[in-house]
Specification:
With 246 residues, this protein is of the alpha/beta class. The chain is globular. A six-stranded mixed β-sheet has the order 6-7-8-3-9-10, with helices on both faces. A four-stranded antiparallel β-sheet has the order 2-1-4-5, covered by helices on one side. The chain is 33% helix and 25% strand.
């Protein structure tokens, strides 16, 4: 699979320009971290990649064809966790996943649900109504529905929000394993969630891509930053963000 983002800009009716001439090439398998502060443009870019938004200008190609002409195919290979994902509070965890499996037209849904329930540690609460779940448990349900059907393209917007440190570590490992045979894109403002698992990091701020490359290259970007002799990934990230905000 290949995704080509070519000179994309996105301006909302309010006048806010969320993305400004963004270009990026994505092919798999790959595990890519999309990082930047809140309001940087991460969510807008992800919504464009899943065809939930249309660009104001520019083009997105999926396997060398316009994304808009490939929406049916996109839905068949996509697992998506938006930041504002909604759950049906009156359903149990299992009922909700069964409903999502039906929407995705997943064959052998029972087996698929059992698989994602186990992967996301939902075994003990699968018969519990969603309205009684904690924030972290609800987040795990959101991740589970994205994983249903073993999609080729997995796009997760702030997937570790609400998870405790141990859960975050477990899910980082899960995302890393998932990327062995698919494209996984993780959006976060917490760089530690991606630095140890992603072979590629994209830093975005104010709608522009500031960096696209391997983590060690991001460290090098901060050489000499505030006198640091051995810059860390966080230092490189902060240097780029602060420089772009001047």
């Amino acid at each position: 699979m290949n995704i080509s983002v070519q000179h994309i800009s996105k301006e909302y009716k309010t006048g806010k320009k969320a993305l400004d001439d963004v270009s990026v090439e994505i092919s798999g398998p790959a595990l890519i971290g999309l990082v930047g502060p809140n309001g940087a443009g991460k969510t807008s870019l992800m919504k464009l990649l899943v065809a939930a938004l249309l660009p104001s200008s520019g083009t997105i190609l999926l396997n060398n064809e316009p994304l808009q002409s490939k929406e049916y195919y996109l839905k068949s290979v996509l697992g998506y966790l938006p930041q504002d994902f909604g759950l049906y509070d009156e359903l149990t965890v299992w009922q909700f996943l069964d409903y999502i499996a039906a929407l995705k037209q997943i064959k052998d849904s029972k087996k698929q649900i059992e698989k994602v329930v186990q992967k996301t540690n939902l075994d003990e609460i699968q018969k519990t109504r969603i309205k009684t779940l904690s924030g972290g448990q609800r987040q795990r349900v959101g991740i589970a529905q994205a994983l249903l059907g073993d999609p080729e393209l997995l796009i997760l917007d702030e997937p570790t929000v609400g998870l405790d440190p141990e859960e975050r570590r477990k899910f980082r490992n899960l995302f890393s394993q998932s990327a062995q045979d698919k494209i996984v894109i993780l959006s976060t403002h917490i760089i530690e969630d991606v630095y140890c698992i992603c072979g590629r990091i994209i830093v975005i701020n104010r709608g522009k891509i500031l960096f696209d490359g391997r983590p060690e290259k991001l460290m090098q970007a901060a050489q000499g930053y505030k006198g640091i002799l051995e810059p860390s990934l966080e230092d490189g990230y902060m240097y780029l963000i602060e420089k772009s905000s001047l």
